[in-house]
From TrEMBL:
Keywords: Metal-binding, Prenyltransferase, Repeat, Transferase, Zinc. This is Protein farnesyltransferase subunit beta. Heterodimer of an alpha and a beta subunit. It comes from Effrenium voratum. Its EC number is 2.5.1.58. Residues 41-368 form the Prenyltransferase alpha-alpha toroid domain.
Amino acid sequence: MAVQLEGEATLTSEDQHSTEDAVLALFKHAFLNNAAQDISLQRELHRAWLKKGLVSLPPNFAGLDASRPWFVFWITHALELLGDYDEPHWSYQVAGFIAHCQDPTGGFAGGPQQLPHLAPTYAAVSALVVAGTEAAYKVVDRKAMYGFLMRMKSPDGGFKMHDEGETDMRGCYCAIATASMLHMLSDELLEGVPEYISRCQTWEGGIAGEEGLEAHGGYSYCGLAALCIAGKADALDLHSFLKWAVHKQMSHEGGFQGRANKLVDSCYSFWQGAIFPLLHEAFRQKGGSMPLPDDHCWFSPQPLQMYLLLACQHPNGGLRDKPGKSADFYHTCYALSGMAVSQYDVQGNTSIVGDIHNLLERTDIYYNVLVEKAERRSAYFNSLPPLEIDGRSLQGGEGPGAVAWRKRVLASRRVQEVDASPSSAIGRKGGYAGGDVE
């Protein structure tokens, strides 16, 4: 979205123009030097950088000691998107470390011997799903976890992040997604949640972290995804939400901003980019007369991929927020996640900037783990007997919205596999910058 100066330069507008100049300079360099035909995701560079971080972190990361399950998730999910998560090698180690972060009273902490918190709880469970083994799934004490999630529930319908902690939109998503992944999303957990999230939808259309605040990309994803998991997105004004979201893709850079008058940031490639297929599925499940696109759901995937590939790859490995910034695991994870979202349309066809080798694995837009890993997890937890809580069988399971979407994706994939010939085993459209890849 273009900056509206109204005759006055501000620090915000100057930062915007300098960011545009930096990004456009990289675009011009690529095209003027005929490098557009060779736009590539530096897979080997990123793999090496990620694996080094999974083994050990430098001393300056000590201040992030309460985020250790997040590092495991960010790194392992980035590796699985690249198709380079070595399950036999890493899964045992991941499960072993995450087990040390589990609190006896339920939930996971940011590190061993710390207090349980909803954010690292979601990260820990997601990392175990990425690990993808029965041993990893068994790490979770589901009975204690359910008690923890219920303790975090607030009277207003939201969730506290930790005991005596703040209640905001992160809590809703982390609690609902965790419960759904573990097949214990119940009516009592969901009670009041749709109403709480709808109260946080702003006049702009997006969702704020708390009622009365500004709409924000990260909180918007959290609120929408939580409702979509439960099949209750109709609690929102979806048309207003869509109108807000489409204005967050930047006209020059191609990436997304998180809120009005903010700079482009690669992490919003997922937080904003995944909103569109979620909205598409929400409209589809709601029904009605609104025509739904078959392609990329109201945003432009090619400019987004151009931004990520040309402006966000760090020469030493990893992806960064924007030119001039350092790479980090958080931005690497969510930049790649957003790229993966943008490469697949609702029919499962692909749209790839550059070479076919830039294609990433498909991520589940509800949980942000690979679709295959989400399905494998689902099969395991479906095979278990009902969870016994205080002498009663818990009437809970996976969220119906997440189940319905994944079934559609997998069914579409099976149809493509049947129809595919050896010369077109991956259904795909022409490359945006690199010519036809057919």
